[in-house]
Design brief:
The complex is a heterodimer of chains A (114) and B (111). Chain A has 114 residues and is mainly β. Helix content of chain A is 0%, strand content 49%. Chain A is built from no helices and 11 strands. In chain A, strands 2, 4, 5, 6, 9, 10 and 11 form a 7-stranded mixed β-sheet that branches. A 4-stranded antiparallel β-sheet of chain A has the order 1-3-8-7, with no helix packed on it. By secondary structure, chain B is mainly β. Classes of the chains: A mainly beta (114), B mainly beta (111). At the A-B interface, strand 4, strand 5, strand 9 and strand 10 of A face strand 3, strand 4 and strand 8 of B.
């Protein structure tokens, strides 16, 4: 297993376009998280899945954002009608449920909205 | 989750020990202390965690104060590859949710 994979690594899009990012977690991890990180700040939580169920969404996740995790495997994060304020690094993390085990993060997708 | 306070930045010389402090005066009895670090252009990486006793692993040591209101991450011999932002995070024992990151401490390592 090569860890958490995110695709693409970089995305440049024009304002108003839709974008979709993919996250492939570690195969045996049933929890999956999405975070957003802007320059100079720590990552901010967006949403969380346990298996295929989306259990929690941050107030940061506006109605332009949607996330899915079909069959409890990979996950996608879609942003509709992108705005310049959406420019950020989008990070995915996965972990197993129970205990205090480490969360494993991907390298992120850097989104630039022009 | 309770808040933590860390210095914005620290400097170290290569091959010297580094002590990164974290204050968490409002920690509850069920909060674990986690440390993650983030290298430039990478996602955060787990470093270590503990509850009450000091902990050691191949990356670092975690020293926890007796009253648990503060802790220190110790890198025994800093290398240039240890230059990163280090985050101290409290996570409740029963938590199944996300990590709450602050701004962390940016560690610079001089050759």
């Amino acid at each position: 297993d090569t860890g958490v994979s995110q695709d693409p690594r970089h995305k440049i899009t024009k304002r108003g376009q839709n974008v979709t990012f993919r996250c492939d977690p570690i195969s045996e991890h049933n929890r999956l998280y999405w975070y957003r990180q802007t320059l100079g700040q720590g990552p901010e939580f967006l949403t969380y899945f346990q298996n295929e169920a989306q259990l929690e969404k941050s107030r940061l996740l506006s109605d332009r954002f949607s996330a899915e995790r079909p069959k409890g495997s990979f996950s996608t994060l879609e942003i509709q009608r992108t705005e310049q304020g959406d420019s950020a690094m989008y990070l995915c993390a996965s972990s197993t449920s129970g205990g205090q085990g480490a969360d494993t993060f991907g390298s992120g997708t850097r989104l630039t909205v022009v | 989750d309770a808040k933590t306070t860390q210095p914005n930045s620290m400097e170290s010389n290569e091959e010297e020990p580094v002590h990164l402090p974290c204050n968490h005066s409002t920690i509850s009895g069920t909060d674990y202390i986690h440390w993650y670090r983030q290298l430039p252009s990478q996602g955060p990486e787990y470093v270590i965690h503990g509850l009450t006793s000091n902990v050691n692993n191949r990356m670092a040591s975690l020293a926890i104060a007796e009253d648990r209101k503060s802790s220190t991450l110790i890198l025994h011999r800093a290398t240039l590859r240890d230059a990163a932002v280090y985050y101290c995070i409290l996570r409740d024992r029963g938590s199944q949710g996300n990590l709450i990151f602050g701004k962390g401490t940016k560690l610079s390592v001089k050759p």
